[in-house]
Design goal:
The structure holds two protein chains of two kinds. Chain A is 31% helix and 20% strand. By secondary structure, chain A is of the alpha/beta class. The two termini of chain A are 16 Å apart. The two termini of chain B are 22 Å apart. Chain B has helices at residues 17-28, 80-85, 116-125, and strands spanning 3-8, 34-39, 76-79, 97-100, 106-109, 111-114, 128-131. Chain B has a single domain (3-131), classed as DsrEFH-like (Hypothetical Protein Ychn, Chain: A, 3-Layer(aba) Sandwich). The radius of gyration of chain B is 14 Å and the shape is globular. The chains are: A alpha/beta, B alpha/beta. The A-B interface holds A 6-8, 10-11, 32-33, 36, 39-43, 45, 61-63, 65-70, 73, 82 and B 10-15, 41-42, 45, 48-56, 58, 60, 62, 85-87.
């Protein structure tokens, strides 16, 4: 299943709820303000890193660029996708759960 | 003269709050009051360097913060604890300055990193607080 999250992990529990309910092997795509979750050295970095052992985490690159999050500030192992990759994830997964 | 503080608590681009707040600050600057801005929580992300909204097809509001000094908005208080939680330091923020008329137009930094306790005191000193 594909999970999409669009809220900042510092301002909402959406990501935490998603990570708690996502089955192993899920694809998790961070978009809009949720892309702040990929930054290293933050209060949520360890939560994201531990989720990476069971799920694949993606982040939408246009949203990262808009927010000035450079690749050097990111946790390594995060997969970057564009809008085409977003569509690909949506069609290859059988379901999409949007944690709005 | 009244003390006005604009409190910014939202990350940029995801919601309309930061842009609306910025517009109100620039309009308010015309009224010759003692104006300051506070950046708390995700609001600190508004000042992050290197924002490029080109791929979103949206106007980039980030360069507008560079104009605040020209509008005599020269006190941008950024909460240290909020930076820490987000893995940010002063170097990660835009270099915003203003020219001090009373000191031979010397360029001075507009961003002042303050502790939560200092910000609490600053809030207490205001006549008007507007939240975005």
């Amino acid at each position: 299943m594909l999970h999409t999250v669009n809220k900042s992990p510092f301002d909402s529990h959406s990501l935490q709820t998603c990570l708690g309910l996502a089955k192993a092997g899920s694809d998790i795509l961070l978009i809009e303000d949720a892309v702040y979750a990929v930054m290293s050295g933050t209060a949520v970095t360890s939560m994201v890193e531990s989720a990476m052992s069971s799920s694949t985490i993606y982040a939408l690159e246009p949203d990262l660029r808009a927010r000035g999050i450079g690749f050097e500030k990111m946790i390594s192992g995060i997969n970057l996708v564009g809008y085409d990759g977003f569509v690909e994830l949506a069609v290859t997964n059988d379901k999409v759960q949007s944690w709005l | 003269m009244k003390k006005f503080m604009y409190v910014n608590r939202h990350a940029p681009h995801g919601t309309i709050y930061p842009l609306e707040g910025l517009e109100v600050v620039l309009i308010g600057a015309a009224f010759d009051q003692d104006v300051s801005m506070a950046f708390i929580g995700d609001g600190v992300f508004q000042l992050n360097k290197g924002q490029d909204t080109g791929a979103l097809g949206m106007k980039n509001s980030a360069p507008t913060y560079g104009a605040l000094g020209d509008y005599e908005v020269t006190k941008l208080y950024v909460e240290q604890e909020s930076l820490d939680e987000r893995g940010l330091e002063l170097n990660d923020l835009m270099n915003l300055t203003w020219e001090d008329e009373e000191a031979d137009w010397v360029e001075k930094p507009s961003i002042r990193v303050v502790s939560r306790a200092q910000l609490s005191d600053l809030l207490e000193q205001q006549d008007v607080i507007l939240n975005f």
